Amino acid sequence: MSVHAPILAIAVPLLGGFATPLLAKLHRRVRDVWALAVVLFVGACVGYVAVHVFTQGIWVYVLGARQPQETLVPGGFPIRIMLVVDAMSAFMGIIAGLLSLTAFPFALRFLPEEEGKTLALTLGLLLLAGILGMAYTGDLFNFFVFLEVTSIAACALIGFRTWTSRAPEAAFKTMLLYSVSGLLFLLGVAFLYGEYGALNLAYISAQLRGSFVDRLALALFLAALVMKAAAAPVHFWAPDAYGEAPAAKTLLLVVNTQVSLYGLWRVLFTLYGGLWDAGVGWLVVSLGLLTMVVAAFMALVQTDLGRLVAYGAVSQIGYMMLGVGVGLVTLSSRPDYALVAMKGGVFHMLNDALTVGLLFLCVGAVEWAKGTRDLRELGGLGHGLPAVGICFLVASLALAGIPPLNGFASKILIYQGSFRLSPILSAIAILVSILLLAGFTRAFQGAFLGPRVEAQGVPGVFLVSMAVLAVGILVLGLVPGFFVEGVVTPAAEALWHGRALYLAAVLGG
Fold first, then answer.
1. Cβ atoms of residues 34 and 20 within 8 Å
2. HEC secondary structure over 274-304
3. Phi, psi values for residue 474, rounded to 5°
4. Which of 114, 54, 108 is nearest to 86 (CA)?
5. Pairing mode, strands 72-73 and 77-78
6. Cα 169 from chain centre
7. 0.90 cut: is pTM over it?
8. Residue 392: left if φ>0, alpha if ψ -120 to 50, beta else—which one?
9. Where do runs of H (alpha helix) occur along 62-166?
């Protein structure tokens, strides 16, 4: 594993997903143990990769060769497929590994056998493989391939429960947007391949001249990845998707959205590296503000607990775009405050994964206990499910950025950096947090407060999975400095300053 960890993190869940239905034929317990073993192995792989990258630098893994230089022909042209893992890629891998380790144990107990449990586990493993492939690949076409793997697996996860009335509709809506997104990205790849005759991201980055074709490809990439990341005004698929997928598997859909944002950062910072004016950065900032405002207002009027959490999740995409967008606006001058905002945007990816993940697990526990997520039919669950109520409250406060929880730790960095660019940006972001606090306070009151009601107890594995995420929220909120300095700062600087190192690791020099 010490030599092949990057490719194993992708190949094992990919092959493991296809093996899951076969093992289910032997025995259900064999299938469950297999799924857990695959997820644990992937967690070990992404952890090892992260430690290696944070301590030794960029890891270039070449399929079919020992060193990157062995793949170069005269002129520095790479002829083999590469995985290129820098600190930002490793950070994305950590998020995927952590949420899969909490989602799969929950799913094994949550999913009924008669409702496609084997299929859901299979699709979950395939989605995990695609996410890690997008995070680790150094090749534009393979990024597209993994983008499509995640799209297929995600749409199937959303819509496989065909006996419900809304799942097929949500899956079709998501499939439509994902198809357009994939087509746009592929067209961008085709333009660059026609221009430079290569697909390696580092090689193309070194050759870019800022021509019309280059800028057209950038526009296609930007449109495709913003659409896949559920940024407004093309966010409308996400609440349906999050609401109709099995609660435990929604965690992987959240990571799927975040890895699309990662792809956007990779294109803008590493591939293009500033070959544009500040208008692109302002576009990202504007879309971020629009996303957080629209989603927060929509969350206020929801009566379905799952959809309310889904809109809360979409709103957090806006904060990430705002933080990193400040860095894009000022990329030519690189002021210190912009790096602060970028650290906040990157840190918020991890915090959002933990917070939204915990909220969706709480939604799953409520659905298990009462058989409904309609706030008009809920109430009083805090008496019989106090642990679930406490976890929901903690996650809600963290999502709204209340100290001393993890959401505050990342949002304060975003506020601080964006304020230096324009105080209006911080003011809007703070007001949105207040709206979210109001919406989730109403949800907590509607679901958990009130007279005692009869409710089915939840399995212990539910509480364990929720406790892991709740502890993460508290730890990242109480001692954020350790994680910011050790993990977040290297990831943000890999985008901010790391383009030259990325190209040198692949191309030499």
1. yes
2. CCCCHHHHHHHHHHHHHHHHHHHHHHHCCCE
3. -70, -45
4. 54
5. antiparallel
6. 23
7. yes
8. alpha
9. 87-110, 117-136, 140-159
Task: Give me the count of residues in the chain.
Answer: 509
What the block records as the tokens of 51 is 């430690």
What residues make up the domain containing 441?
277-494
In a domain, 490, yes or no: yes
Which residue's entry shows tokens 């150094």?
Answer: 138
3-state secondary structure of 497: coil
Per residue in 88-143, pLDDT (tens digit) is 999 999 999 999 999 999 988 888 877 788 888 999 999 999 999 999 999 999 99
**pLDDT tens digits along 316-342:** 999 999 999 999 998 888 899 999 999
Please give the C-alpha separations between residue 428 and each of 12, 63, 194, 395, in angstroms, as whole numbers. Answer: 44, 47, 43, 22
- Alpha-carbon distances, residue 204 vs 189, 260, 264, 309, 402 (angstroms): 10, 20, 16, 40, 43
For the packed helices 247-265 and 212-228, what is the interaxial angle rounded to 10 degrees? 160
Cis peptide before 404 (omega within 30 of 0): yes
| Calpha distance 33→393 (Å, rounded) | 32
Domain membership flag for residue 32: no
Amino acid at 423: P
Q: Which of 292, 360, 342 is nearest to 91 (CA)?
A: 342
- Dist. CA 443–CA 80, nearest whole Å: 52
What is the domain count for the chain? Answer: 1
Residue with token string 């909120």: 477
Tokens of 80: 């083999």
Residue with tokens 């005004």: 233
* Contact criterion met (CB below 8 Å) for 371 and 378: no
Residue 388 lies in a domain: yes
Closest Cα partner for 79 from 9, 152, 139, 159?
139
Structure-token pair, residue 444: 């907590």
Please give the pLDDT value at position 382: 84
Q: Is residue 402 part of a domain?
A: yes
